[in-house]
Amino acid sequence: MATKKIALLGFGTVGSSVAKVLATGKFAGVELTHIYNRDVERKKSTPNAKFVPKTTVWTENINDVLSSDVDIVIELIGGLDPIESWLRKAITSGKSVVTANKQLIAYRGAGLLRLAKKHNVQLIHGAAVAGGVPVIPGLLQGQAGDQITRIRGIVNGTCNFILSKMEAGAEYADVLAEAQALGYAEANPSADVDGFDARAKLCILSRIALRAELDPEQVPTQSISAVQAIDFAYAKELGCTIRQISAAELVGATVQARVAPMLVPNTLPMAWSHGTQNMVVASGRFGGDVVFSGHGAGGEPTAVAVVSDLLAVVHGHSSVELPIKKRVVTGDFLSPHYLRFVVNDKPGIVSAIAGALAKVGANIDSLLQRPGHDKNALPFVVTTEPCLNSTMDKAVRIMGKMDCMLEKPLCLQMLEREER
Ligand SMILES: NC(=O)C1=CN([C@@H]2O[C@H](COP(=O)(O)OP(=O)(O)OC[C@H]3O[C@@H](n4cnc5c(N)ncnc54)[C@H](OP(=O)(O)O)[C@@H]3O)[C@@H](O)[C@H]2O)C=CC1
Ligand SMILES: N[C@@H](CC=O)C(=O)O
């Protein structure tokens, strides 16, 4: 097997870990010839630089890579522009590409994959969803024979790290800072906490598993930043915890899709995921549920996925290709909801809330009020019987205007207790 020349674009958390995994794995048939990054002198003094071969060229000029005889470009910078145009140039000059860039693959992947096919090269992105968990190769190859109708799970390690630590008593801001320091969060952590990272991953999974091309902008997202310690206490009383859940389901010609913090019953495996653990449950018509799980963020787990993709290219991998259809998204799921209010307590609040829910046609299932809270800032919870997210949005708009409300009511979808 002829040795393939490899270029690494980006020597950050994942890129530098790829250098380490490559060096320690001593894989035959690959040679790291180029590393591109801005300000390379700074990068040369980072801990993983010691794993870079002496012969590797470090450059701040992307054309040194694009005009070279490199065979495979590994892109670990992130973002859409100018990365797309760089990868297009690489592909048109006959280079295969390995990337962990979920935004690029979600928004522009269809065109890039077509271009790679036209130029008879590979574009592989196994690390773009769930970091070190081989969910993409598993779905592409291992479940190609099934008809997957639903994909659901936890695909953002930062949010899972934050929520599982909050469940154990930590403060939101402290754990977010910790996730950033550990290299789990995106360059702008709003991508994690506000759901945009998970949304991109959900769209990639939908393309592969549901064979549905979605416009990521159509998929509703809800931030985890409004979840508070009190929500974990009330969730526990309901036999649940709270996790950021990404869900997409084929319903006729449309796809129901949403990314949001949701109440997850403790009976479901997703409730047991802690730290950076990701978990994806693919539900197939013939094979039933298949669960993928492991570390979804972090340099070294993600580097394993990147190096595995690289080795697949080097060893002449070719993936199963099945037809994909563009699908319209609806964000409306029919499910019970959790509503948490913080009010300046006075008589008549519960009946006003019940009135607002009745007005939109939602039925109350339970009411929870823990004793001991300050009546001037009283948190309490109402759960509803199954209703649509859009119905709850209307109710929240009405209730948010009530004089007694000290903050916008928090509305969370509740997952059903059993997998299908
Ligand atoms: N971290 C993780 O757990 C995971 C990350 N990913 C994805 O992998 C990719 C890389 O992530 P990660 O390693 O965490 O990110 P980092 O920010 O740690 O690394 C990105 C690297 O690219 C460099 N860089 C950024 N912009 C430019 C530019 N315009 N020109 C040259 N160099 C540039 C940065 O340099 P500088 O240091 O100067 O900023 C940095 O070295 C992203 O697409 C991310 O979404 C996927 C799965 C998991
Ligand atoms: N920021 C992402 C990194 C992996 O994709 C996450 O936290 O999951």
TrEMBL record:
Keywords annotated in UniProt: Amino-acid biosynthesis, Methionine biosynthesis, NADP, Oxidoreductase, Threonine biosynthesis
Ranges for domain ACT: 338-413
GO biological process: one example: threonine biosynthetic process
Top-level taxon in the UniProt lineage: Bacteria
Keyword field contains Oxidoreductase: yes
Pathway the protein acts in: Amino-acid biosynthesis; L-threonine biosynthesis; L-threonine from L-aspartate: step 3/5; Amino-acid biosynthesis; L-methionine biosynthesis via de novo pathway; L-homoserine from L-aspartate: step 3/3
SUPFAM superfamilies registered for this protein in UniProt: ACT-like, Glyceraldehyde-3-phosphate dehydrogenase-like, C-terminal domain, NAD(P)-binding Rossmann-fold domains
GO-annotated molecular function: homoserine dehydrogenase activity; NADP binding
CDD domains (alphabetical): ACT_HSDH-Hom (cd04881)
E.C. numbers: 1.1.1.3
Keyword Plastid: no
Reactions it catalyzes: L-homoserine + NADP(+) = L-aspartate 4-semialdehyde + NADPH + H(+)
InterPro entries per record: ACT-like_dom_sf (IPR045865), ACT_dom (IPR002912), Asp/hSer_DH_NAD-bd (IPR005106), HDH_cat (IPR001342), HDH_CS (IPR019811), NAD(P)-bd_dom_sf (IPR036291)
Entry similarity comment: Belongs to the homoserine dehydrogenase family.
PANTHER family linked to this entry: HOMOSERINE DEHYDROGENASE
Record-given protein name: Homoserine dehydrogenase
